[in-house]
Amino acid sequence: MALQEEFETQGNFLFKYRGILPLIIIVVGLLVFLESRYRGISFDETIPFAVVELVCLFVCLIGLGIRAYTVGHTPANTSGRNTETQVADKLNTTGIYSIVRHPLYVGNFFMWLGIALLSENVWFVISFVLFYWVYYERIMYAEEQFLRRKFGTVYTDWAAKTPAFIFSFKNWEKPSYSFSWKKVVKKEKNGLLAIFLMLLLFDTLVIYIETGSLPTEMNWLAYATLACGVLYLILKFLKKKTNLLNEEGR
Fold first, then answer.
1. Does position 51 have pLDDT exceeding 80, yes or no?
2. Phi and psi, residue 99, nearest 5°
C-alpha cells in the first residue's frame, strides 16, 4: 500500500476510535501523577495544587470555548461528533474556519492539554503533545482527503489559504450562520462535565495522598461538578424527550 493510502486508512481507523484518546490520557496521566506525587517530582512543590487546578481548568475552558464557538456557527451535518464515517453536507469556510481548517481538533488539544497538565510531569506533557500530533495528523489527513474528493477545487482553494492547525487571522470572514446556543448545549454538554469530573478525580487523589483518607466535605470543585452533572441530566432529558433544543438546519 502506498504511503498516501496508508495514511488515509490509518486516519479513518483513528477517526472511528478517536474517543479512546481521552481514556489513554486519563489512565496514563493518573499513573504518572501518582508516581510524581509519591516520589515528590511535581512541577514545583511550592505551588499549591489548587493553583495548578485553576490553571488547568483555564486551559481546558479555552479548548471548550473554541469547540463551542465552532459548533455554534455551523449548520447541521457538519462539525459533529459522528464516529462511524466522515460527514459533511457543506464545506465550512467562514467564521473560525476562515482562520484554521481544524478548529475542533484545536479545541480538543487544549481541553486534553489541561488534563495532561494535572499530571504535574513535564515529560508526560511533552509526550502528550507528540502523541496528539501523530494521532490527529492521521485523522486530519483522512478528513481532508474526504473533503477534497467531495468538494474538489472549492476545498483546495480554501485549504491553500487556510492553515491546518495554527490560527491565521489575515483571511477572517464573518460566519455565515448566527450563533446557536441550542446546538452548543446539545453537542458540548459532555465536554463540560468531563472536565470537572477529571479535575475532581485528581483533587480527590491529592487529598487522599496528603491525608490518607477521602474527603468528607464538599469543596468548590465538588459543587461545580455536581452542578455540571445536574445540568447534563437536564439537557439530556430535554434533548431526548422534548423539541426545545431543536433548531431547523442546525
1. yes
2. -120, -10
Question: 10 Å Cβ neighbour count for 136?
Answer: 23
Which residue type sits at 51? V
Q: What is the pLDDT of residues 55-85, one digit of tens each?
A: 999 999 999 999 999 999 988 767 555 555 5
CA contacts within 13 A on the Cβ side of 59? 18
Cell 490518607 belongs to 212
Rounded Cα distance between 95 and 249, Å, is 17
**Mutual angle of helices 103-117 and 122-151, in 10-degree steps:** 170
Give residue-wise pLDDT tens across range 8-17.
Answer: 787 778 787 7
What total number of domains does the chain contain? Answer: 1
- Asked if residue 248 belongs to a domain, the reply is no
| Cα(227)–Cα(136) distance, integer angstroms | 32
Determine the structural domain holding residue 58 and report its residue range: 3-241
CATH number at residue 126: 1.20.120.1630
C-alpha to C-alpha distance for 141 and 31, rounded to whole angstroms: 31
Whether the Cβ atoms of residue 119 and residue 33 lie closer than 8 Å to each other: yes
**pLDDT at res. 87:** 60
